[in-house]
Amino acid sequence: MPLALPGAELALEADWLPPADAAALFATLQTAIPWEVHRIRLFGRELASPRLSCWIGDPGAAYAYSGAVFQPRPWPAALLPLRARLREELGIDFNSVLANLYRDGRDSMGWHSDDEPELGARPVIASLSLGATRRFLLKPRRGAGGRLALELAAGSLLLMRGDTQQRYRHALPRTAKPVGPRINLTFRSIQPQAKPDRSRGARAPHPGRSEGPAG
Length: 215
Ligand SMILES: O=C(O)CCC(=O)C(=O)O
Ligand SMILES: [Fe+2]
Prior knowledge:
The protein has one domain: Jelly Rolls (Sandwich), CATH 2.60.120. It is about 15% helix and about 35% strand. The strands form four sheets. A seven-stranded antiparallel β-sheet has the order 1-2-13-10-15-8-5. It has a four-stranded antiparallel β-sheet with strand order 9-14-11-12. It binds 2-oxoglutaric acid (AKG) and fe (ii) ion (FE2). The site of fe (ii) ion (FE2) has 3 residues, from loops. Pfam families: 2OG-FeII_Oxy_2 (PF13532). InterPro entries: AlkB-like, AlkB-like_sf, ALKBH3, Oxoglu/Fe-dep_dioxygenase_dom. One of its GO terms (molecular function) is dioxygenase activity. It comes from Cognatiluteimonas sedimenti.
């Protein structure tokens, strides 16, 4: 289903994975992914991010950041059929995934755009949600534009493309409601030949991302 947000290109497919498959994948990934705490920058300070994460991808999907090259973790077998299906449906062979585990309502992701130079100017990002339903927000980076709040339920696939990252930020705010754990997988295409643009210095690629306070 396309979602109306001026200047953005968004589509949400609610039952991309049937509930039983989504539940099985969630259980598998809780242990199959080597979860770790990534560092983020908030107002110029480096902090532990409020969630667990893992950068997964092809060997060529390494990225350079602050003079170091980060190698992605290998693909867990359980993610390979998803990659193949996305390749069939979208014609895109995503070479990397950022996995995030939100342990409960206190875990979150602050306002950011997925606009790292390695992703190219108009990235296509496919975001699969598993586990607990959480609210996902979009707001314009500057000037006019709409706002959107989406409830991302298990098995749903959100596609962000076109100028979505250039025009909008998104966030997954904390919630005081009691919620169980949620896993989100954002499939991405890292362009190996694209060097990070150091003239934009302040902006870091994953996982040293720049992110505002949640929600
Ligand atoms: O958890 C989500 O739904 C959003 C994740 C996200 O924005 C990201 O990984 O860049
Ligand atoms: Fe994001």
